[in-house]
Amino acid sequence: MKAIAQDRYGPPDVLVFRDVDRPSPGAGEILVRVHAAGVDPGVWHLATGKPYLVRLLGFGLRRPKQPVRGLDFAGTVEETGDGVTRVRPGEEVFGVGEGTFAEYAVAKADLVAAKPGRLSFEQAAAVLVSGGTALQAVRDAGRVRPGQRVLVIGAAGGVGSFAVQLAKAFGAHVTGVCSTAKTDLVRTLGADDVVDYTREDIAAGRYDLVVDTAGLRSLTVLRRALTPRGTLVIVGGENGGRWFGGIQRVLRAALLNPFVRHRLCGLVARERGADLDDLRDLIEAGKLTPALDRAFPLADAVVALGHLRAGRAAGKVVLTVLTT
């Protein structure tokens, strides 16, 4: 089968469109014919092996353990392994798998669900990694409640575009922070207010919850935006050097948290089947729709990754694997 694979760490062009062996599902797994796959910043980190912390977390010290990239997907069940009753061959599903930048990929059956009928394959492929992260940030770590004021920094990004919609679905008054070119998108996501960070500052002392997906502002600046008992959720980190890649802010927040009135949380999201079910319910209810920036052909994965890393994407970037 055709896939985007790598044999070593390096610049994104180590990702090569080539033939690899088709995988087989084990017990509790399914084989899917991939129609579309989501692109997220983690792909760049796994391609380059940076920050080096990525390698220490079990992805391979000298070379990637899993040569094919990709997690998010939407497709059709091709085959089921032993013990799988949740889905059957021929069903359209979405979720996360292993090596989804390929014509076929294996996924755990409990990390897939029936594709919502109102979504295209490209939209569905963009859901669980970014949507699940946003759900854990807003609902679980942020403990959002109706009537609260929520600030989402990076509101036009993959996680941020979901966070804006989720905070609105949970009854909050939402302000989104983005660049000038992306303000219209953030408004269409349902944000009550939009802050163009190139022209204005974040209001001080105003927000019950700040979800920072951009990774650039200091803890001092972020805490200044909070109400006296507000909550800050830091989602990942970028631009923090080759060893830790921005995770330092999460560590500093954890160290500072016991000594301040604010709740300071660093989020390390995990893919969970229960979150997929919750996201699907919100999608079917019309409260959540993945915001797509562009869909690239599978063979153009390196171009898609460069588009994402350059900050040009407004919403999610996906790869079209099977054209219909």
Tally of individual helices: 10
Based on CA inertia axes, which overall geometry fits?
globular
CA gyration radius, whole angstroms = 19 Å
Mean pLDDT: 91
Q: Which structural category fits the helices and strands? A: alpha/beta
Distance between the first and last residues' Cα? 18 Å
- Taken in chain order, the helices and strands follow as EEEHHEEEEHHEHEHEEHEHEHEHE
* Total beta strand runs: 15
Layout of helices and strands:
Blueprint: E1 2-5, E2 16-19, E3 29-39, H1 41-48, H2 53-59, E4 72-80, E5 92-96, E6 104-108, E7 112-114, H3 121-124, H4 128-141, E8 149-153, H5 158-169, E9 173-178, H6 183-188, E10 193-196, E11 207-212, H7 219-224, E12 226-235, H8 248-256, E13 263-267, H9 273-284, E14 292-297, H10 301-309, E15 316-320
Parallel strand pairs: 8-9, 8-11, 9-10, 11-12, 12-13, 14-15
Antiparallel strand pairs: 1-2, 3-4, 3-6, 3-15, 4-5, 5-7
Question: What would you say this structure looks like, in words?
Answer:
The chain is built from 10 helices and 15 strands. The mean pLDDT is 91. With 324 residues, it is of the alpha/beta class. The chain starts with a strand and ends with a strand. The protein has helices at 41-48, 53-59, 121-124, 128-141, 158-169, 183-188, 219-224, 248-256, 273-284, 301-309, and strands at residues 2-5, 16-19, 29-39, 72-80, 92-96, 104-108, 112-114, 149-153, 173-178, 193-196, 207-212, 226-235, 263-267, 292-297, 316-320. Helix 8 (248-256) links the parallel strand 12 (226-235) and strand 13 (263-267). The strands form 3 sheets. Strands 3, 4, 5, 6, 7, 14 and 15 form a 7-stranded mixed sheet that branches.
